[in-house]
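Input sequence (266 aa), recorded before submission:
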Amino acid sequence: MNKKNIRIRKQGGYEMLLQVDRVEKYYGNERNLTKALDGVSFQIEKGEFISVMGASGSGKTTLLNCLATIDSVSAGRILLDNSDITELRESSLAAFRRENLGFIFQDSNLLDALTIEENIALPLTIKGLPPKEADKKTMEIVSRLGIGDVLDKFPYEVSGGQKQRCAAARAVVTDPRLILADEPTGALDSRSAKTLMEVLTTLNKSLCSTILLVTHDPLSASYAERILFLKDGRIFNEIRKGEKNNTVFYHEILDVLAFMGGEFPC
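Predicted structure, token format:
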């Protein structure tokens, strides 16, 4: 993986990866209609690390599902590298996800019948890479994330934190355009959560991986460069880290959450 450790500048600005344009999502029928997303618009640059926060029912999971093409939008567009993914045919969706997206879930979703190494290499095997090339890519990621000591173990033989680090390696091994992380620290203790967020930061900085993190946890969110706050299906606020350290940014996040009036862990 030979990505530069900088974002690519293009025509005086950073190169845009994802554009969400006035997206709306409705559930139900005319008699009982729920608007989960209400005109959501934002952009993500290549190599950016952003977080989406919001209380239950705010629309963040729906947004993630639309970005992942698991759910369809009711109106609006989602452009990935200037291609409208909302127009993809059902028959093309699986291939699109495999070629463009990496996923990290709250449950690592590792296969217990495979070793950690085999789990990490699985997406490469599915893509049909020759074994030697797949092994090389796998070991590059393993080396960067420092998980070489558990490669021959099975998922049930390692800790939850180690599982999530392996899930992160699996998500990035195919060099996806966008990594979607859905509450990846939700089932971890504080120490393991911190380690995982440091892993995601490493992926972002050293591989220029573009990451969108959905989380309830303000401490996890403080590792991102920018945070979008959703409320009632709309973007309520947006803050940027800039030159702030994680501690300062964490308290700024808490201030926004308090202003929103939601119930979030502190």
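Checked by second reader. The first strand starts at residue 9 and ends at 10.
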